[in-house]
Design brief:
Elements (H helix, E strand, L loop, with lengths): L1 H22 L27 H5 L5 E2 L2 E2 L1 H35 L13
Antiparallel strand pairs: 1-2
C-alpha cells in the first residue's frame, strides 16, 4: 500500500510539473521560432564575379531544401553577368575581325609606298 501511495504522489508531481511548464511558462512567452538561416552576402556586389565566388557559394538548407528566393537571386545575377561577358566578347571579336580586314598584308604595297 505504501508503494501505491508513493507512485500516485510521484505521478501527481510529474503531471503538476508538466502542466506548470506548459501552461504557466512564467512571464516569458513560449519559445519563439528560430529565425530562418539566410544567405549572407554570397556574391560580391562591387566587382565582377570570379570562378572562386561561384565555387564558394553555399546555400543554407531550409525545411524543404534550399530557399528558392536565394537560389533564384544568385542564378539571375550569374546569368546577367554571363550575358554581359558574352556580349563584350562578341564586340571584341567583331572589332578584331574588322581590324584584321583593314590591315594591309605585308606583301601588298601600302599608301606610303606610292605605287
Amino acid at each position: 500500500m505504501l508503494m501505491f501511495l508513493f507512485l500516485v504522489l510521484a505521478l501527481a508531481v510529474v503531471v503538476g510539473a508538466v502542466t506548470l511548464a506548459v501552461v504557466g511558462g512564467g512571464e516569458s512567452a513560449p519559445l519563439q521560432d528560430a529565425a530562418p538561416e539566410r544567405l549572407q552576402d554570397p556574391l560580391p556586389a562591387g566587382r565582377p564575379l570570379h570562378g572562386t565566388d561561384v565555387e564558394s557559394l553555399r546555400f543554407p538548407v531550409a525545411p524543404r531544401g534550399y530557399r528558392m528566393a536565394d537560389v533564384d537571386d544568385a542564378l539571375s545575377r550569374l546569368a546577367a553577368e554571363l550575358g554581359e561577358r558574352d556580349a563584350r566578347i562578341a564586340d571584341l571579336q567583331s572589332a578584331l575581325a574588322g581590324a584584321r580586314a583593314v590591315r594591309p598584308r605585308p606583301d601588298e604595297p601600302g599608301p606610303e609606298d606610292g605605287r
